[in-house]
Design brief:
By secondary structure, the chain is an alpha/beta fold. It is 31% helix and 18% strand. Among the domains are: 197 residues, Glycoside hydrolase family 3 C-terminal domain (Rossmann fold, 3-Layer(aba) Sandwich); 115 residues, Immunoglobulin-like (Sandwich). It has 22 helices and 26 strands. α1 packs across α2. Bound molecules: beta-D-glucopyranose. Beta-D-glucopyranose binds next to loops.
Length: 753
Amino acid sequence: MKKLLLTTILLGVIFYSCNSGSSWQSYSKDKAIEQKVDSVLALMTLDEKIAQTTQFTSNGEIITGPASKSDVAKYLREGTIGSVFNTVTVKNNKTIQDAAMQNSRLKIPVLIGFDVIHGFSTIFPMPLAEACSWDLELMRKTARIAAEEASSVGIHWTFAPMVDIARDARWGRVMEGSGEDACLGSLIAKARIKGFQGDDWQNLKENNTILACAKHFVAYGAAEAGRDYNVADISERTLYETYLPPFKAAKDAGVATYMAAFNEIAGIPCTGNKFLLTDLLHHDWQFGGFVVSDHTAVKELIAHGVAKGEKESVALAINSGIDMDMADGLYIGNLKKAVEDGLVSEKTIDNSVRRILEMKFLLGLFDDPYKYLDEEREKSTLMKPEFLEIAKEAVRKSVVLLKNDNSYFPIDKNKAQTVALIGPMIKNRNSLNGEWAGRGRRNESVSLFDGLVEKYKDSEVKFVYAAGCDLTTDSKAGFAQALSVARQADIVLVAMGEDFNLSGEAASRTDIKLPGVQQELLKEIKKYKKIGLVLFNGRPLDLSWEAANVDAIIEAWYPGTMAGHGVADIIAGDCNPSAKLAISFPRNIGQVPIYYNHKNTGRPVDPANPKADYRSFYLDADNSPLYPFGYGLSYTSFTISNIKLDKNSLSKGNKITITANISNIGNFDGEEIAQLYIRDITASVTRPVKELKGFKKVSLKQGETKQITFVISDKDLAFYDVNMKYITEPGSFKLWVAASAADETNEADFTLK
Ligand code: BGC
């Protein structure tokens, strides 16, 4: 039967390609594939085409949004719809593919999607945590493993990476992205896409690659007041300079699909924004893949108030460039009527269908719809030991040491001492994966307790334990026991944080302190003992009290499956922390949104006199964050020195080479992430006080010094002028090779001629 279909398709090529005349530009730019796509299209009725533009959640295994229509089961049985998501086993995915092969007229394979965000079965640190590793190869590798696992259960497409820049810790989805910076975010976007898809579209035909999806297009992270789904009222400049670059980087890395964002920008919901979805994506960027709506976002055009009913909302969405409608069933219910009423042309639908069919061809599904469906492979792939090893490496590289007074950490294995383990996250497994944790089984993640017990099993260290309180409630019933345990110990190690439900989608908070009575417990313990605090959470927290009062803080984020082992390695000093924040930690909620590359204003604070009147500051807090972007400590100390430029003046088409020395002057081997920041002093439009332009992660033995090199060209200095033209302008620049965005010790000047 499969062969028969293929023959029909190939015959179709001959007839259809002659009359095509479509303005469709394929993703692969491969003529043979374009012809195959057109040949299938030529066989399809309008109903069949519309079904291809429809995606339903399986209503079965995993729910990621409001419930789908009740007649989904009927559509799934008919086997005609284009895509299904949220089925995560070979068995169930096979049922879906069987329906298409056995019940549908054309036997077009179904595209199976899923949110493979930070791992599938093996769960890696949440994306923001991984971003703190600044290790692009690591992130490529973890996305690769996620693709290996997901593809082994029949998934062809992940709704990842999320490349939204996020600068507001109230927004629960900060956990899902790469933080606040467009340069770092763009590099990470590329790494993750290569991991999911492979190096180019030819790799898509392998059965262990999956389509990636850059989401949420665009400016979802700019949700006003950090409230999820809220409007993003940003300037065109901010859109181009801050929010679009990671999406453009995704295109350059060959991303196969985009997902439109829920939010509006300046009065236009992204789901109905033709400029973004068609003019920018397809025309300017020459993107040939397809765009999916977010979950029920087509229908939401009615609530936004830009479509009066379902028919109008589907017309607006597809005419704007939404090729596939996720979950609300509006295309399948209304598109035909919209065509009949002249609101949508069949050619528009044809182009959407072409884009979707092309991906099915590139994945090889027309050759073998079952190629991803192999129960043996599923069994042997999920959570392979080597995947778990990389998961542990990812934890070790993502954990940020925020404070370490008097070398509280590492806790020496050879010193006979009693360590009190206190806090609701010591034995917790449930929250360690964080949100969007795929098919990862929460009870299988290694708790900090288990990790520490294993790590210290042959050591001189003795542990005593009490939870003290839980993550969210006001109950202090456990305080007395926790204090008694603390008193017996030499030092106290506390693990606290947020329940995983407190970040992720629809999880915005107006208070970003440790929830419940956790801080109160810390205050009690502090009366007796030194505290080392390990945090498991999904967003930058307001840690002002903790930073001032506990001795040491490890930000472990949500580390995933290997949490306890990876964090125990850091605590014991078997691994020296090297991660640096990819997002600023505010002093308190009143500072957000806060980010390092802000503008200077006409009345910047005078550092010598920070409270001088009528300047841009707060009466009750500093402007600076508690912990800046790019900040993170190590058990050793590094210095950066001897910054040199090979020339101080740059002309167009030329380059400047910057060198600096990094020395490890402490007592551990370690890794430093040296960051290059640039400031354009005077330009025709205001420029940020500094912008990241590159970084180097350098490994140094104790006492070792290495020279690092950065190269910049005039292109690195370009920006959008008053007419939003991307240009370079002559002028003076400053640069820093720095240990964080707040470090200005190594500065140099140059000019662009
Ligand atoms: C989220 C997307 C996700 C989709 C499917 C939506 O609610 O915003 O990020 O991919 O659900 O689960």
